Amino acid sequence: MAMDILRSHVSAVRLFHGGGTRSRSCSTRRFNVRANLPFPQQNAKYYKELEAAVDVVQRACHLCVHVKSSLFSTDGKVLEKNDQTPVTVADFGVQALISLELSKLFPSIPLVAEEDSAFLRSRNLADTVLNAVTAAGSSFCRPLTQDDVLKAIDRGGKDAFVFGSKPATYWVLDPIDGTRGFLKAGKALYVVGLALVVEGQIVIGVMGCPNWEEDLSEKSSTEIEEGCDALCGSGTVMIAHTGCGTWKKRLNSQPKLHGVWTRCFVDGSDIVHKACFCIPDSQTWESLPLSPLFNATSSADNVGNNQILLLGTCCGSLCKYLMVASGRSSVFILRAKEKTIIKAWDHAVGMICVHEAGGKVTDWNGSEIDLAADKVGRRIIFPSGGVLVTNGNLHNQILHIISLTSRV
Fold it and tell me: What is the mean pLDDT of the chain?
């Protein structure tokens, strides 16, 4: 039954792309390797890497959309990994697709990613993922095989590369952050997130969110009239490059709109109880250190002096980073629970997007997040207390509150 479910997920993808052929020749299948980025190439040291990342993340998002389109047309349960988290063909397909393209363009740069192929091998599902990757399109000049896909997935697996203590250059990928959101009907948010780390610093980041919808409440009627077609209800891709800012555009841009980027900035809130907050779906407001001073409400009409507005978003951490970087939320706060491992791919790309939009990211002591703390695998981060993401204006105020309430 599980195999039938995953295969049915792929059927819609294959039909959308016009058949089930396993490969397309390089002469007939062309890919957008010129992303028309919003800043000059001479200003961006990692321009080529960012171009490639934008292209492959956009294609990965389309893979997700078309796999999801068949998700609710079948009966049965979604497969769960050993840690009881859900997984779909899209998770493996996105990792395989992005790994394949990046290894071809930048073969010397290793990949740190969430999945490995052991789960697929144990259930003989490699062919299912192969079909999904093929349907999404590959720039390889020969037909892909199951072995190609399995090796591509494992290139980002935990046993693929040993870093050691020296500075390194590597990609960090979360194929789908918010798989629970991906599995929900409707507009629950999920993100494909890709970042490049060079000597401990995140230098570029790309987030693709197929279900993102713009909040037009603060835009003028002229801005809405001129830009609504490019902004509303079509998903978003957000990019950041060190020193070049954070930008976003419509994910499903038509050719005439391609390259229409909007600069992103965090909001200007500087009073805690007038700011908008978001927290992980797995945590409650009462578990966080601000709760003794402020109650939380989901209604903007009910916000008082001792209340804050808590925005509901689903489902992954990267969605919250996107909220802060785009100015829709002022603060994202996460508590580091005991026995809970915090993964680098849940935060890396969001960190640069918030930073380049004018915000700040630290642990609860105010220290920067150390991506190299896991010296061997670069897969785990160890933020003291938790992670605090803000618009910058509120950062020290909230750190002070955390410090005071932790002493009580």
Answer: 82
Q: Which percentage of the chain shows pLDDT scores above 70? A: 78
Known binding residues for Mg(2+):
114, 174, 176-177, 346
pLDDT tens-digit readout, 80-98: 555 556 678 889 999 999 9
The pair of three-digit structure tokens given for residue 136, joined into one six-digit string: 């999404």
91: annotated active-site residue: yes
Give the position of tokens 């002493």.
407
215 is catalytic: no
Query: Strand pairing of 386-390 and 191-198?
Result: unpaired
- The Cα–Cα gap between 132 and 12 comes to 10
Alpha-carbon span 251 to 62, nearest angstrom: 9
pLDDT at 122: 86
DSSP for 295-354, written as a single string: EEES-GGG--TTEEEE----S-HHHHHHHHHTTS-SEEEEE--TTPPEEGGGTHHHHHHH
Nearest Cα neighbor of 264 from 352, 148, 364, 142 is 352
Burial (0-12, 13-18, 19+ Cβ within 10 Å), 18: exposed
Q: Which residue has the higher pLDDT, 279 or 29?
A: 279
Q: Do residues 98 and 194 touch, judged by C-beta distance below 8 A? A: yes
The reported pTM is: 0.86
Q: Is 114 helix (H, G, I), strand (E, B) or coil?
A: coil
Of the candidates 55, 88, 91, 281, the residue annotated as catalytic is 91
What local confidence, expressed as pLDDT, does residue 225 receive? 35
Of these ranges, 30-44, 153-167, 380-394, the one predicted with the greatest mean pLDDT is 380-394
* Binding site listing: 114, 174, 176-177, 346
Which entry of 88, 128, 134, 179 is annotated as an active-site residue?
A: 179
Print the SS3 string covering 232-292: CCCCEEEEEECCCEEEEEECCCCHHHCCCCEEECCCCCCCHHHCEEECCCCCCHHHCCCCC
